[in-house]
Structures are given as structure tokens and as C-alpha cells.
Amino acid sequence: MSDVFEQAWDSIVKIDEGMWEEIYAPLYEVLGGRGKNKRGYAGASSSLDFVPTEMLPPTRHFQGKSPSNFGIGDQKVERLMESIMEHGMLGRNSDWWVHRSDEDRGLDAKAEGLKRYDKAAEQKDSVGNVAIPQLNFNPSGWMIGEGNHRVEALRRMNAPFIPAYMISSTMNEKLKKPQYNYDREMIYGKDMRRLMGLDSNRYALFPHLQEDYPDLFDPNFNEEHRKAIGGYGIPASFGRRRNAVPPSFFFGRELVPGMGRLIPDLPKGLSAQDIPMEELRTYDTSWGEKANDPTGAFSEFQDRLNWRVI
Question: Whose CB among 76, 117, 126, 226 lies 3.0–4.6 Å from 92's, allowing a Cys bridge?
Fold first, then answer.
């Protein structure tokens, strides 16, 4: 980072909550706010959620350390910091909305970018599936999968919290590395553990025992987990079909003080603990299977993935 930019940044960054509300304001506008959603938003309908910056240290990066250590990574991170400081994250004038193909077609790329932002803000178009950082998970561990440079940029800027969503991963061998293990006090929350078929499984409850019991800690040989995510119900949506999961629901707790946590937006009297583990049926079938979603509330959630803050 240039000395001039570093000095300028150090002079204004004081963990100012108001400043970060302003920086993240465009995310609320184009993603619809926390708990709001529309098909096609970041991460196959990820609802805007945040994690404390200390949850995303350099060792959680896909590369194993900060991406600035590789190639022109440092230049990318510096450009992102400048853009975020000037325009906000995904701000209307940021390069996120500018496509090189517009120039190739003889269009004004900047003007086209502004149109894209406005359409997203009006809920008429989507943002893109990696608009905010993506965290990859499976029972072995979790890591920063996409948005590594943005995470480092925000970390360098002393952001108190970082936007993110979680999505399942098949990179089991990589996630078995100790640096990606779940922290002892930060594992699957109660609801997510049940949906992943890990409710009574030592794999989820005691991930640090995997070196002593390797066979128990491989999801490929975990029958409960494999059965839960192998069908077409809501557990499969999160565990196999890679729909996005808000981190505060995944971990089952408020992660950023004062922000609350996200839970499925279900009718009064229903909760995540009531979600059927099997494919949803709104009526009895001719095969003898009984309706497990007679009101259609769970099907509505599976289709739209709306969440609410508590």
C-alpha cells in the first residue's frame, strides 16, 4: 500500500460505527436489507448477514493466508480499499457494476453500470452470486471461498464486521486442514445441526476429535448426514444444492452485537425445528406418503428463502 494512502486512511479510520453504516448502505439497498430476499441475489438468494471481522483471520482464506501474498493480490486489495472508501461496498459508482463487454459493444460502460445499480435497487434485477463474500462449509470445517480480496481489504480497513453468506462445499480434504476446523465454541447451531443430520453426531459436536476418530469425521461415510442432504427437501437445499445460509442461522446465535440473528420467516407457531427432513408434500400421495407441509409454509420458504431478524 502506498505511504500516502496508508497515512490518509489511518487518519480517518477510528472504528466509526456511523462510517460503516454508510459504507454498507448500498448493500442494504441492492440486497433488500437483512432478511429480505429475491431469487437470484448473491449466493442463490443469500439474505444480507454479517460476521465479526475477527472470525475471518488470514488463516481462513482459501489460499491458506492473505491473498495479498500472491501475485498482484496486494494491488487488488489496495484498489478495493480505495473503492470501498470512496463509493461504499457495491456503491452505485463502484466498478462492480461496470462490465468490460459494454465498451466492446460501443456503449458507455459507466452509464450502463449506473443503470445496473438502479435496477438492482428497484428489485428489478439481481446482484450476482458473489456480490458479498462467500464462506464454504461442510462437517469438516469452513473457509472463505469467494471474495477473499474483499475480506482482506475490509480487514485492513479495520471494519468491525463483514458481510457474508455460507454455502456447502464438496472440498472435504481441504476443509479437513486444522486451520479450517470449527472453533470449539463456534460450531453448527442447533437448528442447522439437525437439518444436516448431525443432531446426535459427535462429528458436529466435537470436531477437534477428528484426528483421533478419522472414520467418524468423514461426511462421505456419515449415513445420517448423507441421508439428510441427499433428497429434495430443505436440508438438501442447504447441504447439497448449495443454497445460501445466513451465518447467524448457521451458527445459531447473534454474531454481531445488536444485529440479532436470522431465522426462517415462517408463520406464527412454526420454527426451524418443525422443518421436515424429507421432501415436502402438501397432500397425501398415492404412494402412501403423508402430507408433511399441509399449509405450504415450508414450501414457500424453500422456494423464496425469506428470513427475519430476531
Answer: 117
Residue reference for cell 444436516: 196
Which amino acid, one-letter code, is at 85? M
Instruction: Give the chain's count of helices (H) and strands (E).
Output: 14, 7
| CA nearest to 197, candidates 277, 281, 292, 280 | 277
pLDDT, position 11: 47
pLDDT tens for residues 229-284? 988 999 999 998 888 899 999 999 999 999 999 999 999 999 999 999 999 999 88
CA 119 to chain centre: 23
Name the pairing type of β-strands 134-138 and 165-168. Answer: parallel
Amino acid occupying residue 101: S
Quote the CA–CA distance of 87 and 96 in Å, as a whole number: 11
> In the numeric block, which cell numbers belong to residue 219?
461426511
Work out whether strand 165-168 and strand 161-163 pair parallel, antiparallel, or are unpaired.
Answer: unpaired
**Structural contact between residues 56 and 145, judged by C-beta atoms closer than 8 angstroms:** no
What is the domain partition of the chain in residue ranges? 3-90+127-263
How far apart, in whole angstroms, are the C-alpha atoms of residue 78 and residue 76?
Answer: 5
**What would the grid cell of residue 160 be?**
468491525
pTM recorded for the entire structure: 0.88
Amino acid 207: pLDDT: 60
Report whether 280 contacts 302 (CB < 8 A).
yes
State the average pLDDT over residues 192-196. Answer: 92
Listed in sequence order, the residues at least 6 apart from 32 whose beta carbon sits closer than 8 Å to its beta carbon are 38, 41, 48, 123
C-alpha span between 113 and 99 (Å, rounded): 7
Residue 43 in grid coordinates: 449466493
Interval 110-121 mean pLDDT: 92
